[in-house]
């Protein structure tokens, strides 16, 4: 199962090779998350409507290897945008993918851009 | 490593262990404790509470694991039978031998049974241990079956005797107190206060017989009465002897320790007996030619013995021991402090008495009118803590000393503030905690609230009598530091749940986003979102479909997320009653979608392994067949479990299934601070396990007994009796009030049991609110609940009929594919998720 985890690596905006269109803004719930598919990857996409910011990360929670992060509740911890995994409420930063609860688990994050009402996620492949 | 053997595992023996392990030096010792009773030490002071809940565990000083965790070997059910001082060994009744370096005797006392003819008859008990109580309970049941108006007498009108009187009354027997002296509580009260107490006790149903010397106990095999004089007979079917205590000092006698003339093992101010390796503490220790039958001096002795053994030789027992006590006897405050009966040569007394209100207060003041020497309070002891402190610390008293005890309307003044006490004032005498230690815990050691202070100092954990004073001290100290003590929901809302409930309701806040704009900051989080979702739902009965993104994941998808990210489906089966056709429908659906099925603890059927996109399809089929959501995913009413009741059961007294269905349907969909479970049993055999629920009903002769605030889970708790013999309508009325009051006031994710624990005044207060309407809100609570009941709708039906709401039941936004990571493996002809890597 570790194999599934290996395919997720953080992509920064400068490394993007493909901006993949995943739908329209209206396809995504406000102040919440949803899941998209890119090749074999599952990516969670979050729409922080209050600040009009978007974030994306792997859908896979590295703690118990479940495809669930897009279903988690979002919010912030001292200003850092975060998602809480629905399984055991582990909190991950959506800025750098670190675990805000302190242990080593980390998730991969991906850049998001909005153009003409469309949502794009940046991938390096 | 030196070996300590503690003989006796009562309150004082336990206290020795507790104080001992708190010392860093304790790691150089191995402690073994022998207890004769079959269970670890329990709180004998509150023995009569056993009748309310019959929960021996609740009385434990500490569970058996505590001893293990602290490296103490606890041997229960094994009496130490001999001490061999020359070899420093002991033998037990099981003929095992152990050696010691230090021996601590804490065998306590046994009930004194006077040599009255016939005392061995069946139906004569002593009042000392849980086993005694169990014996009394069983016997009371037996005699009540023969004679529902059976009478029981208690021999002894002292402290314990009156407690036993209450126990007998609680058992449903007609209680009689028989006392040899011409007054009740002869050791603590003067004649006038004793009369006031007597009037009060008689008004609540106790029959009191004073100046009675019992000649013999009548009856053939079992007791039928007591004979005082020739023609003076009291017919009773049971007798509880509570005529004082005798130290259990046999071990001391047989190994030739120095003994008192009338029993007790002589100790010095180090708590050492005549053998310096042997210590004696508690009710077997004869100190100053006295046996001290109170907990506080016993604890003090335990402390001294601990310090002496680890080498802190300077800790000695005080030469004068404060025998002040305050207690609640059958709901009546009784307290005495200092010198309660003072001879006129030493000073004068000020007495306030109001027999109509069963009030008596006496203070004894020195001739110069400057110091308080002692006093007695009956009926209202709210001034006790302060008066006791004034006495202990020799504080100055007002010129007109009557002000100390007069009611405010007659010139009484509240005297001083707790902060005026000297730092050395001992506030909690059970644990010897000073005012200074309590304040210091806040000012220097970082305690921020009452619970912190209690955890850090152990104040209030003995008899609890000092609690009001500790609360005042904590509040005043926090205030003096400019600290506002406030419980808040999370970093986004600096309000607690109850405040937010009111703010949202009064300001008619439409949704979470607006609440965050008005009263919060930031983006919110997984704590405040579901808490507010619950608040919105309990104000307007909105379903989870209206604001799905603030719901916890379970509520958002109206299903329970399981280990591999699939969901489970639970249709409502009210009261656990289900037709064959409904069973077939569930079976057909489960087969069609290949779901694992299991019967739940709440008498319904759980279908596991559904993928998100399958949920609406499954629910469509269930709803078409007449099912509705079971809300198994919500912090909401789950089930009302029932036994089959009088409809089928040959023991059933009422129709428990019918009533369970009615109640479950009344509160279905009701969201609350945490999940809610109910139970209805058709008789006292209690097959529905109703007392393990947040609310439970048990059928009895004449109606339903209503219990509240129980739960299973990690910290199981039996529900507590709220009201007895109610008709159906009153049950619903009380439940409406209880549930709504809980919903309004509990913190997020606080179940009813911990909520009640924290509720000031506890079950008595709750009874007042629910039954007597002490807050004047009962009608409001009922109307509010009825409003919610009227607005119920099935949220799954709502969801599948609305295409917009259905959008969220899809794994990918940009594809109709499903999650291809799911792997199931077979198990016992069904399936389960593949184990985690």
From TrEMBL, chain A:
A single MF term (Gene Ontology): nitrite reductase [NAD(P)H] activity
Keyword set, alphabetical order: 2Fe-2S, Heme, Iron, Iron-sulfur, Metal-binding, Nitrate assimilation, Oxidoreductase
GO BP: nitrate assimilation
Domain Rieske: from-to ranges: 19-121
Keyword Transcription carried by entry: no
Transmembrane is among the record's keywords: no
Cited PANTHER family: NITRITE REDUCTASE (NADH) LARGE SUBUNIT
Listed name of the protein: Nitrite reductase (NADH) small subunit
UniProtKB/TrEMBL annotation, chain B:
Protein name: Nitrite reductase (NADH) large subunit
The family this protein is said to belong to: Belongs to the nitrite and sulfite reductase 4Fe-4S domain family.
Note describing how the cofactor binds: Binds 1 [4Fe-4S] cluster per subunit. Binds 1 siroheme per subunit.
Binding site for [4Fe-4S] cluster: 643, 649, 683, 687
Cofactor: FAD; [4Fe-4S] cluster; siroheme; [2Fe-2S] cluster
Coiled-coil spans in chain: none
UniProt entry keywords in alphabetical sequence: 2Fe-2S, 4Fe-4S, FAD, Flavoprotein, Heme, Iron, Iron-sulfur, Metal-binding, Nitrate assimilation, Oxidoreductase
GO molecular function, one term: metal ion binding
Source organism: Flaviramulus basaltis
């Amino acid at each position: 199962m570790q194999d599934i985890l290996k395919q997720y690596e953080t992509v920064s905006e400068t490394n993007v090779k493909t901006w993949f269109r995943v739908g329209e803004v209206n396809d995504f719930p406000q102040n919440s998350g949803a899941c998209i598919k890119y090749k074999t990857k599952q990516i969670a996409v979050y729409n922080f409507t209050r600040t009009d910011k978007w974030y994306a990360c792997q859908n896979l929670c590295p703690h118990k290897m479940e495809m669930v992060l897009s279903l988690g509740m979002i919010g912030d911890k001292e200003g850092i945008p975060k998602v809480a995994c629905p399984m055991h409420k582990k909190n991950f930063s959506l800025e750098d993918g670190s675990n805000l609860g302190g242990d080593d688990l980390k998730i991969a994050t991906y850049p998001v851009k909005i153009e003409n009402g469309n949502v794009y996620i940046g991938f390096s492949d | 490593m030196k070996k300590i053997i503690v003989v006796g595992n009562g309150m004082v023996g336990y206290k020795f262990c507790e104080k001992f392990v708190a010392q860093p030096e304790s790691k150089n010792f191995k402690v073994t404790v022998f207890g004769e009773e079959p269970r670890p030490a329990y709180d004998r002071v509150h023995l009569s509470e056993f009748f309310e809940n019959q929960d021996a565990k609740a009385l434990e000083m500490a569970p058996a694991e505590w001893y293990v965790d602290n490296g103490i070997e606890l041997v229960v059910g094994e009496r130490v039978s001999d001490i061999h001082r020359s070899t420093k060994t002991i033998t037990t009744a099981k003929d095992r031998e152990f050696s010691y370096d230090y021996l601590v005797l804490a065998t306590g006392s046994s009930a004194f049974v006077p040599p009255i003819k016939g005392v061995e008859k069946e139906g004569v008990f002593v009042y000392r241990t849980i086993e005694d109580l169990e014996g009394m309970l069983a016997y009371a049941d037996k005699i009540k079956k023969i004679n529902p108006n059976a009478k029981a007498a208690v021999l002894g009108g002292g402290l314990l005797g009156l407690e036993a009187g209450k126990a007998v009354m609680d058992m449903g027997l007609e209680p009689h107190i028989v006392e040899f002296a011409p007054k009740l509580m002869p050791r603590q009260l003067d004649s006038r206060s004793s009369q006031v107490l007597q009037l009060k006790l008689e008004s609540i149903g106790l029959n009191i017989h004073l100046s009675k010397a019992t000649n013999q106990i009548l009856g053939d095999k079992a007791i039928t009465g007591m004979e005082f004089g020739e023609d003076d007979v009291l017919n009773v079917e049971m007798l509880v002897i509570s005529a004082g205590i005798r130290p259990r000092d046999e071990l001391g006698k047989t190994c030739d320790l120095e003994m008192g003339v009338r029993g007790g093992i002589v100790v010095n101010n180090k708590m050492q007996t005549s053998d310096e390796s042997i210590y004696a503490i508690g009710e077997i220790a004869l100190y100053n030619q006295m046996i001290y039958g109170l907990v506080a001096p016993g604890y003090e002795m335990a402390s001294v013995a601990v310090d002496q053994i680890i080498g802190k030789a300077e800790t000695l027992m005080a030469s004068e021991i404060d025998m002040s006590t305050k207690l609640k006897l059958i709901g009546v405050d009784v307290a005495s402090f200092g010198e309660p009966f003072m001879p006129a040569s030493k000073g004068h007394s000020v007495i306030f008495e109001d027999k109509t209100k069963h009030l008596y207060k006496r203070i004894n003041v020195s001739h110069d009118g400057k110091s308080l020497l002692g006093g007695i309070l009956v009926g209202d002891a709210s001034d006790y803590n302060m008066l006791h402190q004034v006495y202990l610390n020799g504080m100055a008293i007002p010129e007109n000393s009557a002000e100390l005890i007069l009611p405010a309307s007659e010139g009484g003044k509240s005297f001083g503030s707790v902060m005026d006490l000297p730092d050395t004032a001992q506030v909690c005498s059970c644990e010897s905690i000073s005012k200074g230690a309590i304040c210091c815990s806040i000012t220097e050691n970082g305690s921020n609230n009452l619970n912190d202070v209690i955890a850090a100092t152990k104040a209030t954990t003995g008899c609890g009598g000092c609690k009001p004073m500790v609360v005042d001290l904590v509040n005043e100290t926090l205030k003096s530091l400019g600290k506002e003590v406030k419980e808040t929901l999370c970093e986004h809302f600096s309000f607690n749940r109850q405040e937010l409930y009111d703010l949202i309701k009064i300001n008619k806040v439409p949704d979470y986003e607006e609440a965050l704009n008005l009263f919060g900051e930031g983006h919110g989080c997984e704590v405040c979102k579901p808490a507010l979702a619950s608040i919105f739902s309990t104000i307007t009965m909105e379903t989870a479909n209206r604001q799905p993104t603030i719901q916890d994941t379970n509520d958002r998808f109206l299903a329970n997320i399981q280990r591999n990210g699939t969901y489970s489906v639970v249709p409502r089966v009210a009261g656990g009653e289900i037709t064959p056709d409904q069973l077939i429908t569930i079976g057909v659906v489960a087969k069609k979608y290949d779901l694992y099925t299991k019967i739940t603890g709440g008498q319904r059927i759980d279908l596991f392994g559904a993928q998100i996109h399958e949920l609406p399809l499954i629910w469509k089929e269930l709803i078409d067949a007449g099912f509705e959501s079971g809300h198994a995913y919500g912090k909401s009413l789950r089930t009302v479990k029932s036994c089959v009741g009088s409809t089928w059961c040959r023991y059933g007294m009422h129709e428990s299934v019918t009533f369970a269905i009615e109640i479950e349907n009344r509160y279905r969909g009701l969201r609350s601070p945490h999940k809610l479970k109910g139970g209805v049993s058709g008789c006292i055999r209690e097959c529905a396990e109703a007392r393990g629920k947040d609310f439970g009903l048990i059928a009895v002769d004449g109606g339903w007994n209503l219990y509240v605030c129980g739960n299973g889970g990690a910290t199981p708790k039996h529900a507590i009796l709220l009201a007895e013999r109610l008709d159906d309508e009153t049950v619903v009325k009380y439940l409406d009030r209880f549930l709504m009051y809980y919903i309004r006031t509990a913190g997020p994710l606080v179940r009813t049991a911990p909520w009640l624990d924290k509720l000031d005044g506890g079950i008595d207060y709750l009874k007042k609110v629910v039954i007597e309407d002490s807050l004047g809100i009962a009608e409001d609570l009922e109307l509010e609940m009825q409003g919610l009941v009227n607005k119920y709708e099935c949220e799954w039906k709502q969801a599948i009929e609305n295409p917009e709401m259905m959008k969220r039941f899809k794994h990918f936004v940009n594809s109709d594919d499903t999650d291809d990571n799911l792997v199931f493996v077979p198990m016992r002809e069904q399936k389960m998720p593949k184990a985690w890597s």
